[in-house]
Specification:
It contains 3 helices and 5 strands. By secondary structure, it is an alpha+beta fold. It is rod-shaped and about 80 Å long.
Length: about 150
């Protein structure tokens, strides 16, 4: 009977466990300014974006290490060496083919706004199904460091 190798278990847990990014809610952000205006025109836009898998190299390396550890569990002598090499190659190949680049479609809304100072502003932002803009809507432009957000003015 094969006993699991502690190194194998550690590597398996490291490479298979999901990694969750930090998600913060209810965080106050500094606002540079708020301007009110009226929507002049609305245009729905879609944009296709290719998202490149930046972890592909590390995933392949991890698959090779994991496959080598698994392959090393089998055989003896030169058979053990062959099993280790084959396990590494197979692990790298499987890991390299997992995930990969993907194409996502973003739904955007382009808004032409006449602000309270008589200036026309064009804003392109992500469309939200719950928020539909129409010409004539009163809106507020909230300026954050590095970007602006348009919301209905209530």
């Amino acid at each position: 009977m094969l006993k699991p190798n502690p190194v194998f278990l550690m590597l398996f847990t490291f490479f298979v466990s999901p990694v969750f990014g930090a998600y913060e809610r209810n965080v106050a952000m500094p606002v540079e300014k708020v301007i009110y205006g009226q929507v002049q025109s609305v245009r729905q836009v879609t944009e296709d974006q290719l998202i490149e898998d930046r972890n592909r190299g590390w995933r392949t390396f991890g698959g090779a290490v994991l496959g080598g550890v698994i392959g090393h569990q089998f055989g003896g002598g030169s058979g053990n060496d062959v099993a280790t090499v084959l396990g590494s190659l197979l692990g790298a190949a499987v890991a390299a083919n997992q995930g990969g680049d993907r194409l996502i479609t973003q739904h955007l809304v382009e808004l032409l706004i006449l602000d309270e100072h008589g200036q026309q502003l064009m804003v392109l932002q992500e469309a939200e199904p719950a928020v539909r803009f129409q010409a004539g809507d009163e809106v507020r432009l909230v300026y954050f460091p590095g970007y602006v957000r348009v919301d209905p003015a209530f």
